Amino acid sequence: MKPEFTRLFLLSILFVAQTVAHAQTWPSKPVRIIVSFTPGASIDLAARAVGQRLADSLNQPFVVENRPGGNTIVSAELAAKAPPDGYTLFMALDTTMTLVPAIYDKVPYDPVKDFAPVGQINRGAYIIVAPAKAPYRNLADMIAYAKSNPGKMNVGASTAFTQLLTVMLRSAAGVDITYVPYKGGPPMIQALLSGELDGTVDGIPLYVGLVKAGKVIPIVTTGPTRAVQFSDVPTIREAGYPQLEAPSWTAWFAPAGTPDPIVRRLNGELAKILNNAEFKQKTLEGGQNPLVHASPEEVGEQVKQGLAKWGPLVKASGIKLD
Prior knowledge:
Number of strands: 9
CATH superfamily of the largest domain: Bordetella uptake gene, domain 1
Number of helices: 11
Helix content: 40-55%
Strand content: 15-25%
Oligomer: single chain
Mean pLDDT: 90
CATH architecture of the largest domain: 3-Layer(aba) Sandwich
CATH class of the largest domain: Alpha Beta
Shape: globular
Low-confidence stretches: 14-18
Number of domains: 2
CATH topology of the largest domain: D-Maltodextrin-Binding Protein, domain 2
Distance between the termini: 64 Å
Structural class: alpha/beta
């Protein structure tokens, strides 16, 4: 064996040994979880619930850091540029990883190259809701109302995905709907309940309690099948707009270069949490989307598939957010 090859071989063994040792002692200090939305948003609640379970299991605090703004670009850039040492995690929506790069010409992160997929949390859909006093109870009547009142319907959205769905609905139905961007679900819901908005497009979890209380009306959901939280609410395909079908998912990422043993350990801990029968039941009872575990490879493939789907669609349509 040549001396140079021997040296490189020994260095590689030393590197692997150090990486494994680092993973075995990880975490030795608090871990931060970067979230793109304000406290109280559905993704924030999920991050805190799972983070607490991770803290209990790994004996270190998992602290949520809310960084809303810029259609999740602010938080994604922060997470992408963090040290890849296992002490920064990013709780990301599908919109951040698959749609934002398609909508904007330049974003300060690459969803594939700058992140290491860790695991998934849930899968679900979006929902269109209306205030309880609205004169419409289904999508057809909502569109008819918008046509009768051009330029007067304001619909709130808090992510690039939900904003795009609003723009696509406006185009597909041929109506003059104005979308109003928000940095998170809670302030948008306040606007809806106060009468400032005629509807919202958002994640399902925050609206379960409001629907039960009779404060809002569910119009349609956007998944391929009816949502488990609202089995009596039609899908957007059933309502006549299959091109607007859009399932959602939430997943964990770390900065690219995070040691693989740490990623694997985290994924294993997530599997224990998400497959816990008691935790799954509490999650559903709380109105959250169904918990679904996935491997790092499966999460990475979801990102690539989403980019392949939405990138060409957005570019071909010429749709841009206002």
